[in-house]
Amino acid sequence: QLQEQQEEIENMMNAIFKGIFVHRYRDVVPEIRAICMEELGTWMKSYTASFLTDGYLKYIGWTLHDKQWQVRLQCVKALQGLYCHRDTAAHMELFTSRFKTRMVSMVLDKEPDVAVEVVKLLTLMLENTEEVLTEEDCQSIYPVVYVSSRALASAAGLFLYRRLLDPREVGREPSRNGDNRTFFRLLLAFFIESELHEHAAYLVDSLWDCAGPRLRDWETISALLLEESPTKGLADRQEKALVEILAASVVQAAEGQPPVGRSLAKKVTGL
Q1: For 16-129, CATH number?
Q2: Integer angstrom CA distances of residue 45 from 15, 40, 71, 170, 180
């Protein structure tokens, strides 16, 4: 009897979905399209067995291309609610492979609010899926740490830190005395490779919220700069870059403000 009632309920839900949602998710009114995406995300989290399937996920994937940014934003937020848990993310392999390119490209969305949430989404994917994001995908996200919008740059800073700079995440433990030598060497490698050496203040500001304590480790920075060992010491180029990062970190710690040219406003401009 329970099984029969459950099937009846599922049939009713399916009828409502096909009779209402399938028509309204393309409604001419963007607010209605946004509500459809928001609710679909809720259904998928609440009734995973019924709704977390490729047959339903495809509607979110298609709507990632919506012309209205409010609708795209709801799609991204719905996906955040799914990728934030490993068990639900594991059910989304086909969706991920099909729509990952679109999600990565949305890092450059013309609406800053959407771009910020997309970077947060990709960070969740990084943390809760197994090697889904390729190095090429990540390379298109890293440069966002240099944009003028602080909200977007900080979101990208967390992604960069999780993927490339956290010694624990990349399988390299700091030394026993707890110093941050590994972190600074990884940071220097990224900074030098990015070839934007005049923008140390931007990079430091982007990482400040997630790696501030590491960046304020003046003792380790001093030790690295004073190291004269041919094996452990820094090359001239690394020393110069580390001094720039040190200077930017000191200014950031003293003033507590984003660098000149980085705004808290919504307008986003690349380098």
Answers
A1: 1.25.10.10
A2: 20, 9, 19, 30, 39
Token duo for residue 240:
């110069």
Q: What is the CA radius of gyration of the chain?
A: 22
Spatial CA neighbour of 87 closest among 129, 118, 115 = 129
Could you give the angle at the alpha carbon of 244 between the alpha carbons of 239 and 250, nearest 5°? 120
Q: How confident is the model at residue 170 (pLDDT cuts 50, 70, 90)?
A: low
Question: What is the rounded average pLDDT of the residues 77-106?
Answer: 95
Q: Position 203: which residue type?
A: L
218-226 vs 181-194: helix axis angle to the nearest 10?
70
CB 162 within 8 A of CB 169: yes
C-alpha–C-alpha distance, residues 142 and 163, integer Å: 10
What is the identity of the amino acid at 265? A
Positions of CATH 1.25.10.10 in the chain: 16-129
